[in-house]
């Protein structure tokens, strides 16, 4: 584990591609410090978590802010890439 360093997103770990901090085999969320995980990692701090990407494309619209569209619970969310239709990675907005 490293104390310093910058999270790299997306990063590859095992058979997955990750756009945000993960919680595999640990008590707290962590991230890789390399594009392909090579044993260098750190616990995520508030600044490390993935940020919304604006604008993003969802279905046939372009969004410039968080949206409730398509969420069964009516919670606002955003894409973590510019093309949600292709990448399908997202998070709830605060």
UniProtKB/TrEMBL annotation:
It is found in: Secreted. Disulfide bonds join 52-78, 66-93. Keywords: Disulfide bond, Fertilization, Repeat, Secreted. CDD domains: FN2. Pfam families: fn2 (PF00040). Residues 2-46, 47-94 form the Fibronectin type-II domain. Belongs to the seminal plasma protein family. This is Binder of sperm protein homolog 1. It comes from Ceratotherium simum simum.
């Amino acid at each position: 584990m490293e104390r310093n360093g910058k999270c790299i997103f997306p990063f590859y770990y095992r058979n997955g591609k990750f756009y945000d901090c993960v919680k595999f085999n640990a008590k707290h969320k962590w991230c890789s410090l390399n594009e392909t995980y090579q044993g260098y990692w750190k616990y995520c701090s508030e600044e490390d978590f993935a940020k919304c990407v604006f604008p993003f494309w969802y279905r046939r619209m372009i969004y410039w802010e968080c949206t409730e569209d398509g969420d069964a619970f009516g919670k606002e969310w955003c894409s973590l890439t510019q093309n949600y239709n292709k990448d399908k990675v997202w998070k709830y907005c605060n």
